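Q: Here's a chain of 338 amino acids. Please give me its 3D structure as tokens.
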Amino acid sequence: MSSTSDTTILHSSVLQQSFAISRQLHRYLAEYCASEGFKLEFRRRSHLFVPLNKPRFKEKIGHGEVLADGFIWDLEDSIPPGQKQVARESIPEIPRKPGNVEYCVRVNMGEPHLLEKDIEAVIAFPFDSVTLPKGESGEQIAQLMKDIGEDRNYIVTIETIKGLKAVDEIASVLRPGRDALGFGVGDMSTDLGVERISTTESALFQQILGQIALAAKARGLDLFDSVSARLHEIESVQAEAELSAHVFGFTGKKLINPKHLDAINGAFSPKAADIQEQLATLEVFLGSTNTNAHVVGTEYKGMPAFKAANAKIKRLLRQGYFPDLILTDSSHELKQTA
């Protein structure tokens, strides 16, 4: 950068970080955001379960007071049998989305008569995504996607031994770049006949995380870690989130306690140092197009590094990490993509 006048500031209100970049790079990023193919995506660091039979949560969510990236409006485990119909009937009362958040609904998979009623209620409301718990075969998931509607995103949770054995088959029917796999440690513990402990303390649970991660990565799917077993231990929640984010490459984590949000969002947020390095890589390559290799900082980088940095920064733009660059006209309305 030759002078102060050649630089500008790229600010992330989500991360509360600012980055000095060249005006050339700023133009490059702004042009991408203004391009016809640009579509906003959901950040998926945190998905908070909300029981649909508990109206007191709805007002806070509608006012944007709960800073989760997504909300799982629950019809399944958190709803007592006698409250299932009450929960379904409350779906129209769900508040308007407070910005770029994902509205998901979890249905009852284990009991056909409940699932049929759930599907009828879910189809009538514009949920972005549907969580299918206890997924156990590709055929089962593919049929449900047709029954509910292929215009939704789908998050399939692996919670049983049968589902784990079929995880590659299940992943094969999901759609890259929009659908996701998840892990459900509670039901998996029961099916395995083992104590439910933190994933940081269980080699078996870590093996399962790895198996689900490989299936998802091979298909280009997002990944959700399970709700923490340590509901009142923030340090344990943080450790689990760091493990699934940085060791297994998960996208985010589910939760039931809003007090976990800061720890989880922090673990799954991009690091400022990584963003700075990616921006620096783009700067160097865009500034000199007559060679395919450059020194960036103290490292020698070729075109694969440029392509990786370009893809990562563009995904952050699509996920709204730098809202000042994004036009707010109708051509950039939020689309139901991962």
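Q: Can you summarize the key feature?
A: The longest helix spans residues 203-219.
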